[in-house]
Design goal:
This protein is an alpha/beta fold. The protein is about 40% helix and about 15% strand. The two termini are about 15 Å apart.
Length: about 230
């Protein structure tokens, strides 16, 4: 019997909510919170549909990335936003303890428990990206981010890309776009802790133009789930 991997979904930028105690820092920032700098619009609802279709657990964030970015390492200069960067060090440590470390620890514990049982894990972190950033148009519908040095990740993304192209018709699918999969992020953190034989971390990036309408968003999520299932069985 083939060693079928177990699947975990996560969503690091799922929400634009703020804890009550930090809302005064964001007065006058409604449009900022509602846009791509506040969270990944459409990513959570897409991840939920995928989770249901694939019967996979989903670990999602509860608060805005403008509070603290769960997809950045503790030393990254963009860990805190312009609204939280100037907080006193003790307040930052408290914020990390309450809103940053719990999400990342929950994902890592899930992976560690399956790895300890001898299972292979595929972790798909679901994100969305703005179609235009700093005046530059992004030329893709779907991005699949991975570390090219990890053969299992590269192979899975190649199979998923091919399945999406076949199923999605006009979808433009690119690998390691609009970001590089080996760049700073939660998947890179986990690669450093788990061997390629146990862990494959993929970031799914979806153009927000495809996620603006509920019906279209759900149809895309169904396609993403079906093609991922096909890629995992390859």
């Amino acid at each position: 019997m083939p060693d079928v991997p177990v699947l975990l979904l996560s969503c690091e930028h799922a929400s634009n909510r703020l804890p009550r105690e930090y809302r005064p820092l964001f007065r006058g920032c409604r449009s900022l919170l509602a846009g791509h700098r506040g969270y990944d619009p459409g990513a959570l609802s897409c991840a939920r549909v995928m989770g249901r279709r694939l019967r996979a657990p989903l670990i999602a964030s509860a608060y805005s990335r403008l509070l603290v970015d769960l997809n950045r390492s503790p030393a990254h200069p963009a860990l805190f936003s312009a609204r939280t960067r100037a907080l006193p060090p003790e307040e930052k440590r408290r914020m990390l303890a309450r809103y940053y470390h719990p999400h990342r620890a929950r994902v890592e514990r899930w992976v560690a428990s399956r790895a300890a049982a001898g299972r292979r894990i595929v972790h798909v972190a679901v994100h969305s990206f703005t179609p235009v950033l700093d005046g530059v148009a992004r030329r893709a519908d779907i991005g699949l981010l991975y570390d090219p040095s990890r053969r299992a990740e590269a192979s899975l993304c190649r199979r998923w890309r091919d399945a999406l192209r076949e199923a999605g018709g006009e979808l433009t699918v690119r690998r390691n776009y609009p970001y590089r999969g080996a760049s700073d992020g939660l998947t890179r953190h986990l690669r450093a802790r788990f061997s390629p034989a146990r862990y494959a971390g993929i970031e799914l990036e979806i153009n927000q133009n495809l996620l603006r309408r509920g019906g279209a968003r759900e149809r895309l999520a169904v396609v993403l789930a079906a093609t991922l299932k096909q890629a995992l069985s390859g």
